[in-house]
Write a structure and sequence with these properties.
The chain has about 270 residues and is mainly alpha-helical. Helix content is about 60%, strand content about 5%. It contains 14 helices and three strands. It has a three-stranded parallel β-sheet with strand order 1-2-3, sandwiched between helices. Helix 3 links the parallel strand 1 and strand 2. The longest helix has 28 residues. The protein is elongated and about 60 Å long. The chain starts with 5 loop residues before the first helix and ends with a helix. The C terminus is likely disordered.
Length: about 270
Amino acid sequence: MLLAAADARARVVQAAGREAEVRACQSPAEAIALLAAHRVDLLVIDALDERAQPTAPSIASIRRLHAALPILVYCAAGAESNSAMLEAVRCGATGVVFRGIDDVGHAMRAALRAARHGAVRQRIYDALAPGIGIEAQPILRYALSAHGDDVTVQDAAAALGVDRKTLFNVLRRRTDMPPREFINLVRLTLAIGLLEQSGRAAEHVALELGFASAAAFRNMLQRHTGLTATALRQPGGLGRMLSLLQARIGDRIGDEGAREGIALMRNVS
């Protein structure tokens, strides 16, 4: 984190709890060096530095070096801070925390979690949306937000304001998957992305995403992909899951070469 105020630093440490190691940086250069040397889950940075100068240029520099890093910008209410916050978002910040509003207890924990999840969700959406087409993109957005092991096709249809048959027809035109399998694979991909990003235990990620247990998550992953969480939590695991999904979307339907590629991927340990 790159925060000037001691109380702000304390609130981040308290919100992170035992799930993460929190390190404070004294300058953007120190933060960039830390990011280069270690796998960092999330960066929290002031909208204005100690001299009341916008940190947006530093955020832009960090974003160029770390395209997928969640960056949470911390600011006080007020015209000057709001302007700096908007500039920070334009330069690549992925979330905002307002002092005295979002930085207390559960709200701060939720903000940290949302920033982590949001970066991975955006990466998945950007990778899959072009191939799946405009008509199926609402299903993709629903799958990225679905919570719980008992999500049904009827739940998805009701949330999207269509009937079950429409979901099947839309996905049949763009993929070789029925809605339930597609939703489950997207949820699994999100889980793998969070495991790769943070290095946290599978139990924590599984419960955050509404799986009944880590065992339920692992069983679903094995059933749908033939792969294990251990194999996929390493760097590149999210990319492998995205490749699996991309091979089953869009113009690749019916391509035996793509199907063979999926089979080979599933056999990689």
